[in-house]
């Protein structure tokens, strides 16, 4: 992946998570404390480093809230902690970065820096306001300790997942971190009735028991309206989907296949999720494949020209998938 692409993807992922966190407490814009939480939740090395200090989602949220209360108290303002709710970022608008958060992201991409999550964390722990240093202190660590462990982690070779996971289909892979135990994540992914909680295209899965056997199929309905009530344009032939369980190895692997019975020439979509225990939660390995319908004619020249766009669409779908699973526990 090029430096530019890596920086763009990092910015997108961190922005989404940070602004989701800001939406929980009714804040706009998203600030450096929300950026820190986003880094705690990333599957990349910086997230693993922060979680190695026992910085869980709950503990960092608490540290952030306490720090804000102490700052207000220093100004002579006594108040209760703001009420927190669910993530409403996707139903609301008006979110942006604060100037100092935007400064951190900008500096992480300047002067030869890669703009990846590691570069962002380095800039964040050195941010001059002192807020991040104070939050880290509440989590029993320091900027120097975080930086030293990040240096050590980056010297250790890591495996980068292959972008293509199936030779017979347009496919891709990614990884994600979920702030919940593998048992909790398995319960979510293995229960077809809960699929709309993490699969953004589905509204309802009909007649779905808590468990299904491999080879069984259920009928699902596509989502036709966003959470804010705005309509989603879905072609009539794609409203109904068949959901088939392809593989189930409790509690480490599950694979689903989605087809469109009213659009018989359409491609099938396969989602495969592997679960691994991780500090503070669960590490996911995600794979997405679009299986070409054998009855459809191949068009190699247009397909080749469109491949970069297909790759971007795959990355976006995988990002939404991982984000949706994690969001169910936030």
TrEMBL record:
Spans through the membrane: none
Q: Which region ranges are annotated with the description Disordered?
A: 154-176
Q: What is this protein called?
A: SRPBCC family protein
Q: Domain of life here?
A: Bacteria
Concerning InterPro entries, the annotation shows: Clp_N_dom_sf (IPR036628), Polyketide_cyclase/dehydratase (IPR019587), START-like_dom_sf (IPR023393)
What organism does the record attribute this protein to? Leucobacter chromiireducens subsp. solipictus
């Amino acid at each position: 992946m090029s430096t530019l692409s890596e920086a763009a993807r990092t910015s997108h992922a961190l922005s989404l998570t940070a602004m989701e966190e800001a939406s929980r407490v009714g804040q706009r814009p998203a600030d450096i404390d929300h950026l820190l939480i986003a880094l705690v939740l990333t599957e990349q090395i910086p997230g693993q480093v922060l979680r190695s200090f026992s910085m869980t989602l709950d503990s960092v949220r608490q540290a952030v809230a306490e720090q804000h209360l102490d700052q207000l108290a220093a100004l002579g303002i006594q108040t209760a902690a703001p009420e927190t709710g669910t993530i409403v970022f996707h139903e609301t608008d008006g979110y942006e970065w604060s100037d100092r958060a935007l400064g951190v992201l900008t500096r992480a991409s300047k002067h030869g820096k890669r703009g990846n999550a590691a570069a962002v964390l380095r800039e964040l722990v050195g941010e001059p306001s002192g807020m991040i240093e104070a939050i880290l202190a509440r989590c029993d660590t320091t900027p120097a300790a975080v930086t030293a462990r990040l240096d050590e982690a980056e010297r250790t070779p890591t495996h980068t997942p292959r972008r293509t996971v199936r030779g017979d289909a347009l496919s891709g892979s990614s990884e994600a971190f979920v702030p919940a135990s593998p048992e909790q994540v398995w319960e979510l992914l293995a229960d077809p009735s809960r699929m709309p909680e993490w699969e953004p295209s589905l509204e309802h899965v009909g007649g779905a028991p808590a468990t299904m056997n491999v080879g069984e199929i259920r009928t699902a309905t596509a989502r036709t309206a966003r959470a804010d009530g705005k309509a989603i344009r879905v072609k009539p032939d794609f409203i109904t989907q068949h959901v088939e369980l392809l593989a189930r190895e409790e509690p480490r692997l599950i694979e689903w296949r989605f087809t469109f019975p009213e659009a018989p020439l359409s491609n099938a979509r396969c989602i495969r999720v592997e679960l691994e225990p991780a500090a503070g939660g669960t590490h996911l390995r995600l794979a997405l494949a679009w299986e070409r319908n054998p009855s459809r004619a191949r068009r190699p020249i247009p397909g080749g020209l469109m491949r970069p766009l297909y790759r971007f669409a795959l990355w976006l779908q995988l990002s939404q998938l991982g984000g949706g699973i994690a969001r169910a526990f936030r």
